[in-house]
Amino acid sequence: MRNDIKNHLSIVQTIEPANYQATETGTDVDLAGFDAAAVVITVGAATDTGFSFEVQEADDDGTGAPDTYAAVAAADLDGTEPATAVAAAVTVLGYHGIKRWLRVVATDTGTGNADFGVAVVRGKGRVKP
């Protein structure tokens, strides 16, 4: 028999799946209470691949001024952020940083038109979700 994983993970959308034609900034995802996280970028149809993806982190949720989000250092990611929106692709990035908040920004490089969504998988919860 296999162990159940559903009760050990929490999945939160930072960018809801949709067709995007301009830069999209994901919503804040709180990692409090979790000791592991991964970012899952899923691309469907991409008539134009002009999007790049950047995982960002912060000590707070950015509601105060100034906005404190910054790009996650490559050393704190397991994997490489997609430089383009590749059709029918799934990219999983492990996060090793120590910040409490994560989000993803999908930047339109001028010709973007793609279906995609981004979720953060939170794991190793101190209390089961």
Number of strands: 10
Please state roughly what percent of the residues sit in beta strands, choosing from under 5%, 5-15%, 15-25%, 25-35%, 35-45% or over 45%.
Answer: over 45%
Low-confidence stretches: none
Q: Taking Cα atoms only, what radius of gyration do you get, to the nearest Å? A: 15 Å
User: How many strands, what sense, and barrel or not for the largest sheet?
Assistant: 5 strands, antiparallel
Shape: globular
Give the spatial strand order of the biggest sheet: 1-10-4-8-7
What is the end-to-end distance? Answer: 22 Å
Structure commentary:
The protein is mainly beta and 129 residues long. The chain has no helices and 10 strands. The strands form 2 sheets. Strands 1-10-4-8-7 form a 5-stranded antiparallel beta sheet, with no helix packed on it. Strands 2, 3, 5, 6 and 9 form a 5-stranded antiparallel beta sheet that branches. The radius of gyration is 15 Å and the shape is globular. The mean pLDDT is 90.
